[in-house]
Structure formats: structure tokens, C-alpha cells
Amino acid sequence: MTEIAAHDAPQGTVGIFSRRHRLRWTEALPWVIALASYFAFPNYLALGSQILATILYGLSLDLVLGYAGIVTLGHAAFFGTGAYAAGLLAAHGYGEPFLGLVVAAISAGIVGCLTGAIILRTSGLTLLMQTLMVAAMLHEAANKANSITGGADGLQGMEVKPVFGLFRFDLYGKTAYLYCLGVLFIGWIIVRRIVYSPFGRSLTGIRENEARMHAIGTPVFRRRLTAYSISAALAGVSGALIAQTTQFVAVDAYGFERSGNILIMLLLGGIGRLYGAFIGVPLYMIAQDQFAEIDPVYWYFWIGLLLVLVVLFARGGALGTLERLKARWSKR
């Protein structure tokens, strides 16, 4: 049974898993491209830092959607929590970047754990709507707490200190780009270790056949809640990165558009493939930037058309298409 967790499989099988999922040279390609972009596109580093932070956000969603099978429309709840946690710290004189990331991860993780303990007891449309309602409730709470969050005007007075006390966040985005790249790399290592661990195998088994995983004694609810909380913490770190590099937070951090857009990005790249966010996020954000420049009023139409074409002719996103082409080539 492919759904069985690695720790439930024979010892030899676990050995096969560990050998098969060692780091491969192809996995260095995203990082080589990211470093090369730093030198090749110095005028687009601000956009690049936003892309890198959003890739981490996509990784966090892919962990619960692509591997645990938890469909959500409210992942912005954790993104916004992390953004406000780091933003409020910086606005009150605690602008140390790494402290902000840690507080953002803890805050978003706690929100994920508390809300997940309730909503993960449901499934289907009920689960989907409850995730949406959590984000909507936090959005309204942030909007009502105008004296704390700044409401619709955004949080004012953020002052983020230099990274390691040496590297200030400049207008050109050089520090922000490298800072986001380093944090993304750590987040990717965490997600990769989870996905290829026995815990990650059990998540895949739960996604494929929850009843069977119950039958072999897997604590399904506890594992889904753990994955949901980890995903929330990573999304919170992503929100903190955006807040620190832009030095601004607004209530739209909790907005439905942010939850919907990241789903579109994962669809473009490929859900449940670990590297889908690395392709889908840059593809979407660069296309958005170009379409907005070409057609400032109706640019969203072209984004929608792109998504329709992907759904019709590129099932599984860009990575799914590449896998099918590789399989056809192998047969030949």
C-alpha cells in the first residue's frame, strides 16, 4: 500500500526512501537561478524579494493542500497574523528582523493550532467554508482594532533594524532579496524534510485513503493538526518577511484575494510536487507585472485566461506537464 507511512513499512523500505530522497543536483537549480537573478536583474530586486517571500507562502499551503489533502480558502489568516506580529513588534521598538520572524511563526502557529482543533473535525464544503470564515473574522478584528493595527490605513511607524546589525533594508531591495532568499532556503529545507519523512508519508496516506490510515492505527486527526500548525507557522513567517521588507502592513493581509491568488499560483506550478511554488509564484507574479503594464485596467482578464489554458491543456501545472513529457520521452 503506497498510503502506508514509512514507519509502518518494513525496515528495508525505509532505507529505500532515504536513499531515493537524498538531495539531487537538479534541486540546486532554483537556488542557482535565484542567485544569478540577483546580479542579472538589479532593478527588479524589490519584486524579487516579494516573489521569494510568496514562494514560502506557497510552500506552506502546499504542505496542507498537496500532501495532507486539507483544502482551504483561508490561509491568509496565518499570513496576516505573522505580518501583524512582526509589524507590531517593529512599530513598538522591537525591530530585530529574526525576532520578528520567530514571534510571527509562534503567533501564526498558535492560531493555526487553535482554529485547526475545531475546523479539522469537519470535511468537505464545511471545512472549506470554515477556513474562509476564520480569515474573514480575523480581517474584521484587525479592521475594528483601528488604534492597534491602523485599520484600513495600515500600520504606521514600523522601523526594522539592520540584519545582523549590519545590513540595512535599502531602497534597491538588495538586503531584502538576500534576506528573503536565506529564510526561504531554511523553510524549504524544513518542508522537504517533512515531506520525505515518515510523518510526511503518513500525510500522503491520509490524503489518499483516510479510512485505511485509521485502520492501521495512524492518529489521523493529530497528524493533520500538526501539519496544519506547521503550515500556519510557515505562512506567518512569509507574512513577516513581506511586512519587514516593505515596512508596511494593512488589513488586506487577511484578505480573500491573498488566499485565492496563492491557490492559483500553486495550480500554475503544480500542487503536491514540492517545487510547484517555485514555478507557479514567479510565473504568476511576473505575468501580473507584465499584464498590468500592458493593460492596467483589464490585466486580471489575462491572468484568468492563462489559468483556464493551464487547467485545459496542462493538467498538474507546469511540473505535471514536464512529468508527462518526460514519461513520453522515456517510452520512445
Characterization of the model:
This protein has 332 residues and is an all-alpha fold. The protein has a single domain, classed as ABC transporter involved in vitamin B12 uptake, BtuC, CATH 1.10.3470. Helix content is 72%, strand content 0%. The protein contains 15 helices and no strands. The chain has helices at residues 11-20, 29-40, 45-67, 76-91, 97-119, 124-144, 146-149, 174-195, 198-208, 210-215, 220-246, 256-269, 276-294, 299-313, 317-331. The chain is globular and about 55 Å long.
**Shape-level CATH architecture:** Orthogonal Bundle
Largest sheet: none
The whole-angstrom Rg is 20 Å
Are there runs of 5+ residues with pLDDT below 50, and where? 1-20
**Cα end-to-end separation:** 30 Å
Q: Give the helix proportion (percent range).
A: over 70%
Which percent range describes the beta-strand content?
under 5%
What's the CATH class, please?
Answer: Mainly Alpha
Structural class call reads mainly alpha
- The CATH topology: ABC transporter involved in vitamin B12 uptake, BtuC
Instruction: Tell me, briefly, the overall form.
Output: globular
Classify the oligomer.
single chain
Helix/strand layout:
Layout: H1 11-20, H2 29-40, H3 45-67, H4 76-91, H5 97-119, H6 124-144, H7 146-149, H8 174-195, H9 198-208, H10 210-215, H11 220-246, H12 256-269, H13 276-294, H14 299-313, H15 317-331
Helix pairs in contact: 3-8, 3-11, 3-12, 3-13, 4-5, 4-6, 4-11, 5-11, 9-11, 12-13, 12-15, 13-14
